[in-house]
Amino acid sequence: PLVLGIETSCDETGFGIVRGTELLANAVASSMEEHVRFGGVIPEIAARAHLEEYIPTLQQALDTAGVTLEEIDAIAVTSGPGLAGALMVGVAGAKALALAADKPLFGLNHLVAHVGVGMLDGVAKSGTGPAAVVLGEGNLGGEESADRPSAPLPESLGALLVSGGHTEILQVNRLTTDVTLLGSTIDDAAGEAYDKVARLLGAGYPGGPVIDRLAQQGDPKAFRFPRGLSAPKFVGTSGEPGQHRHNWSFSGLKTAVARCVEQFEAAGIPEDQIPTADIAASFQEAVADVITSKAVRACTEHGITHLLLGGGVAANSRLRSLLAERCEAAGIGLTVPPVRLCTDNGAMVAALGAQLVADGVAPSGLDFAADPGQPVESISLPA
Ligand code: ATP
Ligand code: MG
Ligand code: FE
Fold first, then answer.
1. Which residues have C-beta atoms less than 6 Å from ligand 1?
2. Which of 10, 167, 250 has most ligand 1 atoms within 8 Å of its beta carbon, as the pocket-test mutant?
3. Cα atoms found within 13 Å of the Cα of residue 241, Cβ hemisphere only
4. Residue of the nearest CA to atom 27 in ligand 1?
5. ipTM reported for the complex surpasses 0.90
6. φ, ψ for residue 310 (rounded to 5)?
7. Sorting pLDDT into bands at 50, 70 and 90, what band is 234?
């Protein structure tokens, strides 16, 4: 089926078009620049930007794919989770399009859509197990991926989603009907921790890319920062499930970095002599260590043999390398889509929509509302 996917849950306005598992277009406009001076995404500004970018981005996707709205078989839109106002713009626009063009409409789960990207041709082919394959930008659909073994994502699939709003590990028994949450952050998301630490170090916003860059010049062993919820009491002393076994916590880490900076200040060290690169590298090591160790353990304990990485923090160099290393050691296959498909986009929504159409799942109709807290078990909204 030819499916249009619409994503507006945060600061990206995304319109993607797929034909089955083939990616035809992925147009994304971001309002990130408008949020920089506030040091975080302002929901009202994001919602207004979606409104302004809606039609131009839709048109761009249609032009790139070389299709018209009339030719589309179904429309899929992110209904949640996400920012209420931002989601509402996406859903209202999708309903208007579906009504005007007389197309079936699906309201989809944003997190499951991140996994849906793994069904796209070039991405699915890139996954091999147990050896981990980390894809760079631009490999999707290229000659290189055509040469790779065609290995559709396996049955026992896990998804590790790390972004500014989410840090979650999902078990995907069946993409269109059966997804469960194995663990998540109990406080800050990983990307949020990056943003907060970047602010502490005066490094800029968004924090992910600036800390990643700063960390390249630092020593990751300079400071030992806490790995939240990885103490034995959270694991179970003899292998039994402990509380928060597969959950993460990043607020203690953020506080530890703040104390570290304060100690230098209290000792009268001038600001420009505080070893920010070492702090950044040590922080990044703690984040990558605790995310990957707990993700791999969740996979091992739940019989997951293949892991898909998604979310903006998937761009992180240390997370990628450590995850590849640890998955390989544990015999877990790994798929890391190109960054433009890891961050929020419409192609992932279209990809999940196409799977739902192919599986004969009933569309959501026109009466559903955006659900900012949509649980992961709710893959598509019922009519
Ligand atoms: P959502 O949580 O709904 O998916 P989001 O806008 O917060 O939305 P993304 O757009 O997927 O998430 O990703 C943005 C996040 O990714 C930001 O928090 C940013 O700091 C982080 N990020 C980007 N590049 C890197 C990097 N190299 N290292 C670590 N984090 C990064
Ligand atoms: Mg974003
Ligand atoms: Fe996302």
1. 9-12, 82, 163-166, 191, 194-195, 206-209, 212, 311-313, 315-316, 343-344
2. 10
3. 9
4. 316
5. yes
6. -145, 170
7. confident
Least confident of 67-76, 150-159, 196-205, 311-320: 150-159
Helix axes 317-330, 207-215, angle to 10 degrees: 80
Cα(258) to centroid of ligand 2, in Å?
Answer: 25
Asked if 121 and 142 touch (Cβ cutoff 8 Å), the reply is no
Instruction: Enumerate residues 6+ apart whose C-beta is below 8 A from 203.
Output: 210, 211, 214, 276, 280
- In the chain, the amino acid numbered 226 is P
> For residue range 95-108, what is the model confidence (pLDDT) as tens digits?
999 999 999 999 99
- Cα dihedral across residues 43, 74, 29, 133: positive or negative: positive
Give all strands (DSSP E) within the chain, no chain letters.
2-7, 12-19, 22-30, 74-80, 105-109, 133-134, 157-162, 167-174, 178-184, 306-310, 333-336
Query: How far apart are alpha carbons 132 and 254 in whole angstroms?
Result: 30
CA atoms within a 13 Å half-sphere pointing along the CA-CB vector of 223: 27
Q: Which of 11, 79, 83, 163 to mutate to test the pocket of ligand 1 (most atoms within 8 A of CB)?
A: 163
User: What are 14's two structure tokens?
Assistant: 């995304």
Instruction: Give dist(CA 119, CA 136) in Å, integer.
Output: 17
- pTM for the model stands at 0.90
Quick one: tokens of 168? 């979650």
Residues with CB under 5 A from ligand 3 (ion): 163, 344
Do 308 and 153 meet the contact criterion of CB atoms below 8 Å apart? yes
Residue 128 pLDDT class (50, 70, 90 cuts): very low
> How far away, in angstroms, is 111 Cα from ligand 3 center?
6
- Report how far residue 59's alpha carbon sits from residue 23's, in angstroms, rounded to the nearest whole number: 16
